[in-house]
Design a protein that fits this description.
The protein has eight helices and ten strands. The chain has about 280 residues and is of the alpha/beta class. It folds into two domains: about 160 residues, P-loop containing nucleotide triphosphate hydrolases (Rossmann fold, 3-Layer(aba) Sandwich), CATH 3.40.50; about 70 residues, no CATH class. The strands form two sheets. Strands 6-7-8-3-9-10 form a six-stranded mixed β-sheet, sandwiched between helices. A four-stranded antiparallel β-sheet has the order 2-1-4-5. α3 packs parallel to α5. The radius of gyration is 20 Å and the shape is globular.
């Protein structure tokens, strides 16, 4: 009886690798009348005011706006890291009240652990996954390192990597637990133009291959047009949705194409109508 039970448990563990690497159904998001304020040294800051947004399953939505317009605050609320003062966020019809494995965040800084090598950083994100053996985790981590093109660097130390390579490691770490929603907070802002352009292509390829719902925050209008199915424009003080653009361009997209530049120009024109001249935006 003990032998039979052990075989069953082993079979379950072995099958969990294929289960973890399955392309799962992405989540849909429903953001309804979300408002959020913060207390600061200068008084009350109204970060968000009655923001409502629907994100379809597998949709890539980019949120664009000037600094301080509440983009990152909304991302934190979707992740369950912050709670709204009013309104609700639902993922697949269920209220978001706390962080969860179904929704993972990738920040502007890679936030990698310098005492772990590349492979160790990916494995760290898999430690809390149930029904996985050490070998399961290793197989999954190697799969995602190959997906982001870093198989040859799995034993490299973090300080040996370029900025773009560090962000690829951060992306692999976020993808490894197989979330349904990936929340990206200006992940390419600190990178040089050539590296950013390479990562735009990588992200589009991975998004298509792994079928994720992605909400991507950026200041960069052309970046948003290159990546998004839809671009959502935020006005500041307080953050509100002012306009939305559906980007009807084939993929993979060329950042330097005339068609992409035309979309970016239209969006930038709209942004200027409700953004102060000194506020930070890029085309």
């Amino acid at each position: 009886m003990f032998i039979i039970q052990s075989i069953r448990l082993h079979a379950k563990a072995k099958s969990s690798v294929s289960e973890e690497l399955q392309v799962i159904a992405p989540s849909k998001l429903a953001i309804d009348s979300v408002s959020k304020s913060f207390k600061s040294a200068t008084g009350l800051v109204h970060a968000l005011d009655r923001v409502s947004l629907q994100v379809a399953e597998g949709e890539f939505v980019c949120i664009v706006g000037a600094s301080g317009c509440g983009k990152s605050t909304l991302l934190s609320i979707i992740a369950g890291l912050e709670k709204p003062d009013r309104g609700t966020v639902k993922a697949d019809g269920k209220p978001v009240t706390a962080p969860g494995r179904e929704r993972l965040v990738m920040f502007q800084e890679p936030a990698l652990f310098p005492w772990l090598n590349v492979l160790g950083n990916i494995l760290f994100g898999l430690k809390l996954k149930p029904n996985l053996t050490s070998k399961d985790r290793l197989d999954i981590a190697k799969y995602y390192l190959e997906l982001v093109g870093l198989s040859r660097f799995q034993l490299a130390n973090i300080h040996e990597l370029s900025g773009g390579m560090k962000q690829r490691v951060a992306l692999a770490r976020a993808l490894a637990p197989n979330p349904r929603v990936l929340l990206m907070d200006e992940p390419f802002a600190a990178l040089d133009a050539l590296t950013r352009e390479q990562l735009y292509g990588d992200l589009q390829r991975i998004w298509k291959a792994r079928n994720k719902t992605i909400v991507f925050v950026t200041h960069n209008v052309r970046e948003a047009v290159c990546l998004g199915d839809r671009v959502v424009l935020f006005s500041p003080h307080p953050g509100r949705i002012q306009e939305q653009f559906v980007i009807d361009l084939p993929r993979p997209r060329d950042l330097n194409s005339v068609e992409l530049a035309e979309y970016a120009s239209r969006i930038m024109h709209s942004l200027r109508t409700f953004t102060e001249p000194e506020e930070s935006l890029a085309i």
